[in-house]
Amino acid sequence: xxxxxxxxxxxxxxxxxxxxxxxxxxxxxxxxxxxxxxxxxxxxxxxxxxxxxxxxxxxxxxxxxxxxxxxxxx
Length: 74
Fold this sequence. Notes:
Blueprint: H1 24-29, H2 68-72
């Protein structure tokens, strides 16, 4: 059985503005609820990320320039 919501609470939105005195629609539209959000694109223009995908993946690999260590050990 569904609980009925009192008519005073139907259609109310929590906007965090406190008591609204004059213009309820203006207070609602300028609240956090209607704030635009910028999302980072995943594909397409502007989606390139300079971060490395596999950070530290060469740590376990052998040193590629092991022969140059002989010359530096003088």
